[in-house]
Each structure stands twice: as structure tokens, then as C-alpha cells.
Amino acid sequence: MSILKIIKEPDPILRKKSQPVDRVDENIQRLMNDMLETMYQAPGIGLAAPQVGILKRVIVIDIAKDDEPKKPVYIVNPKIIWKSEEVITREEGCLSIPGYFAEITRPSKCKIQYLDYNGNEKEDEVDNLLSTCIQHEVDHCDGVLFIDYLSKLKKDMIIKKLIKTNKDKQTL
Ligand code: ZN
After folding, report:
1. Cα of 75 to ligand 1 centre, how many Å?
2. Is 123 an active-site residue?
3. Is the bond leading into 43 cis (omega within 30 degrees of zero)?
4. Span 78-82, mean pLDDT?
5. Which residue ranges form the domains of the chain, and what is each CATH number?
6. Which of 15, 75, 103, 143 is most buried by its number of CB atoms within 10 A?
7. Which positions ≥6 away from 94 have C-beta within 8 Å?
8. What is the pLDDT of residue 170?
9. pTM of model > 0.85
């Protein structure tokens, strides 16, 4: 397994729509393994392939707490087929937007169809943190970031600061 480079906002790749995977083959499994390793190392609880520069609809998630055994979830070609009317507000962050967190309101539950690590078709109803996390990662596959839900003023301020941080890093 290898650690992949995580792409940061405002890289235009993060705004592209990812393509569905034809088949969950060894290459896709290797990508999922590398993404999981990259996510654990970051550390984060979710990562979508466009965040490592690969425009495929592939997601890895692990919401297990530090003292719990690892519980990776692999999601290929996710399709959210139902969202609850009930919403929940949760503080979100993103490995592509380091250092920024914001309260985002989303449907509290959703139902998702996807292919698992072995390419089997699955359908799950999820709630709480897993539901928020899946919606955040599916957004990545559609070129949407959590800061898009904020006011334009707040979003522009975050992007401006990120550009400055990225520049500072390059001069080191
Ligand atoms: Zn993210």
C-alpha cells in the first residue's frame, strides 16, 4: 500500500465530476487500499478518489473511534436513492480544506446503493455520522465541497486564506 497525495482546495480537480467505475477489479481494490492508508495517515474519517486526483466514484470511510477496532467501509458508484426530511447539523471538516470546520445541515438519514470491495451490489440505510460522512464524500464525486453550503462571503474568505497558505508553503 502507498500513501497518496491529497489535493487541496482550490485545485480545479476537486470541482470535476467523477466517472462511475465499470468493474471493481484489482486496480480499483488497490486504489481503495491506498486511499484507506492515506486517510488513516492524514488522519481523517472519509476520503473520495477525486481528493487524490482520480476522477472515479470511489469512497473509503472509517468512523470507528481511536480506541475501537478499525471498521473500513468501501463504497463504489454510490447512488443516494433516498434522503430523510429530518435534518441534522454537524461540524464538518475536509482533508482537502485543512484547518477549516463549519456547521453544515444535511438530511439526517439516507439510503444508498453501491458496490462493495468485492463488487457486490449493496443497499444500506444509514444515519448519524455515517450518513453525514457518506453525503460529504458523494458530494466530492460530484465536485461539491462542504464550503459550498456556506455563505459566499464565508466561502470566499476560506478560499482566500487557503490560497495564501498554499503560497506560503511553496516558498519554504
Ligand atoms: Zn472532504
Report:
1. 15
2. no
3. yes
4. 98
5. 12-171 (3.90.45.10)
6. 75
7. 9, 100, 136, 145, 146, 147
8. 67
9. yes
